[in-house]
TrEMBL record:
Coiled coil: none
Short name of one Pfam family: LRR_RI_capping
An MF annotation (GO) of this entry: zinc ion binding
Protein's name in the database: Ribonuclease inhibitor
Source organism (scientific name): Galbula dea
Length: 456
């Protein structure tokens, strides 16, 4: 049984009712439920008496260090079988790390620990690492985003990683690590016996200086499938270094996030070579980089290569205009693998979207999710978009938010949604003005087709 409740205030009667249900639950999720340390006493009892409980998610609750101390009493019991523990944004400090470290060193069942958005600090994570290094610990996923970590944390992380072959995922995003620490981390990971699959280092103060070591890690660890270095100023020179590792035959990267990395069209030659030759690469995010039309045209040429297996391309806010849309259309008409295309916050205009739709209509195109929010669109392109919705059965999600579609455009989209051949399940229309009459039509449409969600 699964208990999944979010954003609910817990009155004493309601809490008593839920406690009775929890005794037989395999999964308990209580995010944003205004829980406190007193609730943790009850949860500790559930943890210690319900051996079927494998996942506990308590994000965004004011549990505090006292609450964690209560929880850990249950987690330390031999009857506990918990595998996944989520405690993000629970008002924890370094004081919570000693009891959590004890749990890690005692419970081999615990394989996931998510403690991001807590002020654990470097000192706290060093204590956690002592627990992780215990031979009993079989941790596979460790999430430490927004934990106020500094460069010194790598001194504890490296020996931990080198002693823990089970670790598969490590997220250190949004901590002020800096280049020196990231270099040391990567050097340690190259030497470590762990088979790391995911490494997230977003907003960690990385520049091009770190990219040679990250590149060496990519070429040394074929297990690494998911790398995110978004929101770091690596620039074109850093990207060129990264691509050396990404292009290495050992590299099996599947997901690569490079959003807001100060890239320009100069990087697109390397990125195009990567997209057209690295057949494992399934998803790439280039959001908020100044690629411009010339860069996009190079990427589109790569998408036409038969060896490209890319499934998701995120190019929101990349300085694109109508001028690149013919190339996008041509790529869509050839590429059979691309499923998700995010092109929002680019000045494509109606003329650009009309061109893109030509490619979308091609039998080769298998797009499932298309995002065109804030693209300077009007009702003028909605007839063509409606045709896509009504005829392209693979399309299940369409985002047209922040465009001036008005009543005329929304009515055309509604007509398409009513079509029996339309498979769109989610139409996203944030911040678009329409009349009360059209609003009534939208609500009636949702009632007649409950499988369709219109989000506004």
């Amino acid at each position: 049984m699964e208990l999944d409740i979010q954003c609910e205030e817990m009155s004493p009667p309601r809490w008593a009712e839920l406690l009775a249900m929890m005794k037989s639950c395999k999964t308990i999720r209580l995010d944003d439920c205004n829980l406190s340390s007193s609730n943790c006493e009850d949860l500790s009892s559930i943890i210690s008496t319900n051996p079927s409980l494998t996942e506990l998610k308590l994000n965004n609750n004011e549990l505090g260090d006292a609450g964690i101390e209560h929880l850990c009493k249950g987690l330390l019991m031999p009857s506990c079988s918990l595998q996944k523990l989520w405690l993000q944004n629970c008002n924890l400090t370094s004081a919570s790390c000693a009891p959590l470290g004890s749990v890690l060193s005692t419970q081999p069942s615990l394989t996931e620990l998510h403690v991001g958005d807590n002020k654990l600090g470097t000192a706290g994570v060093k204590v956690l690492c002592q627990g992780i290094m215990n031979p009993n610990c079989k941790l596979q996923k460790l999430q430490l985003e927004y934990c106020e970590l500094t460069a010194d944390v790598v001194e504890a992380l490296n020996p931990t990683l080198q002693s823990k072959p089970t670790l598969k995922e490590l997220s250190l995003s949004n901590n002020t690590l800096g280049d020196t620490a990231v270099k040391q981390l990567c050097q340690g990971l190259v030497e470590a016996s762990c088979n790391l699959e995911l490494l997230h280092l977003e907003n960690c103060g990385i520049t091009s200086t770190s990219c040679r070591e990250i590149s060496a890690l990519l070429s040394a660890k074929p297990s690494l499938l998911d790398l995110s270095v978004g929101d770091n100023k690596i620039g074109d020179s850093g990207l060129a270094l990264l691509c050396q590792g990404l292009m290495h035959p050992n590299c099996r990267i599947q997901k690569l996030w490079l959003w807001d990395c100060d890239l320009t069209s100069a990087s697109c030659k390397e990125l195009s070579r990567l997209i057209s030759t690295k057949e494992t690469l399934a998803e790439i995010s280039l959001i908020d980089n100044n690629l411009r039309d010339s860069g996009m045209e190079m990427l589109c040429q790569a998408l036409k290569d038969p060896k490209s297996k890319l499934q998701e391309l995120w190019i929101r806010e990349c300085g694109l205009t109508t001028a690149c849309c013919k190339a996008v259309s041509s790529a869509l008409s050839v590429n059979k693998h691309l499923k998700v295309l995010h092109m929002g916050e680019n000045k494509l205009g109606d003329a650009g979207v009309e061109l893109i739709c030509e490619g979308l209509l091609h039998p080769n195109c298998n797009i499932q999710s298309l995002w065109l929010g804030n693209c300077d669109l009007t009702a003028g392109c909605c007839a063509t978009l409606a045709t896509i919705m009504a005829t392209k059965q693979c399309l299940t999600e369409l985002d047209l938010s922040y465009n001036s579609l008005e009543d005329e455009g929304i009515r055309k989209l509604c007509e398409a949604l009513r079509s029996p051949s339309c498979n769109v399940q989610q139409l996203i229309l944030y911040d678009i003005y329409w009349s009360s009459e059209v609003d009534d039509e939208l609500r009636a449409l949702e009632e007649s087709k409950p499988e369709v969600k219109i989000i506004s």
